[in-house]
Structures are given as C-alpha cells and as structure tokens.
Design a protein that fits this description.
With about 200 residues, the protein is an alpha/beta fold. It has five helices and seven strands; from the N terminus they run ααβαβαββαβββ. The mean pLDDT is about 95. Bound molecules: S-adenosylmethionine. The site of S-adenosylmethionine (SAM) has 25 residues, from helix 3 and strand 2.
C-alpha cells in the first residue's frame, strides 16, 4: 500500500512503537548495570548467633585485626571490638550503611580507636595485608573476584570466615551449619592462609 494510503492514526501508532522500541533497546545496558548494582548492594545482616560462631571458628583474640569486606552496618567489627578488644576495619560502598555503622559504633560504647569504618570498594583495600581475620557475607561473584587477593595478599595464619558462600578454588578447613531457627541453617566456611609452597 502506498504510504499516503496508510491512515494517519496507523502511521502515528507505528511511529510511537518505533520510538518505544528504540528507547527500549538503548536502555538495555543501563538496565543491566542497574540490576547488577542492585544485586551488589543487597544488604542482609548476619545474625548474632552466626557472628558468634564466625568468631569461634576464627579463634578471634584481642591481638587480631578483623576486616569485614562489605561490612554493612559494621555489626561484625563492632561486636569483635566489644567482645575481644581487638581492632576492626569495615569497608562498605553504600553510604547509607556507613552512616548506620557510625551510629551503631557511637551507641556501642566501644573505644572508637579500635574500629575503622571506611566508605570504599572492598576490592581496593590498600592495607588488606594488616588483616589477621577476614569476614565475608557476600555473593558468589564477589567471592570469586576476591579469591586472588585472598591467595596473594594475606599473611600466612590469617583466618577467613565466610557466611553462606565459598571461594571456588580454595580448599576449606572447616564447614559448619548454624541453626538460626529459619527455613534452613546458615553455612559457615573457614580457611587458614598457608605459607606459599616453595618452588
Ligand atoms: C549481605 S551484606 C553483609 C553485611 C555484613 N558484612 C554482615 O554480615 O552483617 C553485604 C554488604 O556488602 C556490600 N558490598 C557489596 N559489594 C561491595 C564492594 N565491592 N565494596 C564494598 N561493599 C560492598 C553491600 O553493600 C552490603 O552492605
């Protein structure tokens, strides 16, 4: 049919569909980026009973420096400082969580010099080598991406305890289940960094 013969309302509707399809297509990368970011920022705090078990597995003492990568409201490092008098470093990229962590620290009565709450990317921690204990409650993709730093940057003897997810290529020392009264137990994985094998 010649274009002129197509009724005006049909032509308008086609133009509208064309614009919608175009906008939809150019938005796809932005939507993917948005979903990825949303997933990375998922915040689910670790339950107190699970935190206590993480400390037990890592054998935390007052001499430790506990790093929580993706620390949320900082509850793990604040509790470590409160319970053992050890140092804690929490790294979190969501400013809302950081503000919550600072309020929690202020309310906790813990010596502020023991707890360092940092706004930043957990993959870019300049002094990760200071850690003697690392705690993690993050998604599998995060665990896989962090694995090379765990292998190369941590001192031998450093304990790493992760809640629910594991490193794909590091053999764990311990695995325990913690019953928190939910539909399933919570899983904890523990690794101890070993001396690099001499070649
Ligand atoms: C499941 S929550 C756990 C919070 C806390 N560690 C706990 O166990 O209660 C994971 C946290 O990691 C943070 N996160 C994820 N990727 C991150 C990154 N690359 N750098 C810093 N924080 C990150 C999220 O914003 C979220 O607050």
């Amino acid at each position: 049919m010649p274009v002129d013969a197509v009724p005006q309302d049909v032509r308008s509707r086609r133009r509208l569909y064309g614009v919608l399809i175009f906008v939809g297509l150019i938005s796809i990368p932005w939507i993917i980026q948005f979903i990825v970011q949303l997933r990375r920022e998922i915040y689910v705090p670790t339950e107190d009973a699970v935190i206590a078990k993480m400390f037990e597995l890592a054998k935390v003492t007052k001499d430790d420096v506990v790093f929580d990568l993706g620390c949320g409201d900082g509850r793990i490092i604040i509790e470590a400082a409160k319970k053992f008098g050890c140092q804690g470093v929490g790294v979190e990229f969501n400013p809302t969580r950081i503000a919550e962590a600072r309020v929690l620290l202020a309310k906790s009565g813990v010596n502020k010099d023991l707890v360092d709450i940092r706004l930043g990317d957990a993959f870019k921690v300049p002094d990760l080598e200071r850690a003697t204990v690392v705690t993690l409650y993050v998604l599998p993709a995060f665990m896989a991406e962090l694995e090379p730093q765990i292998k190369t940057r941590l001192k031998p003897g450093t304990r790493v305890v992760a809640h629910d997810y594991w490193f794909p290529n590091i053999e764990r020392d311990q695995f325990v289940e913690v019953d928190v009264g939910g539909p399933r137990p919570k899983y904890l994985y523990m690794w101890t960094v070993r001396e690099a094998k001499k070649k």
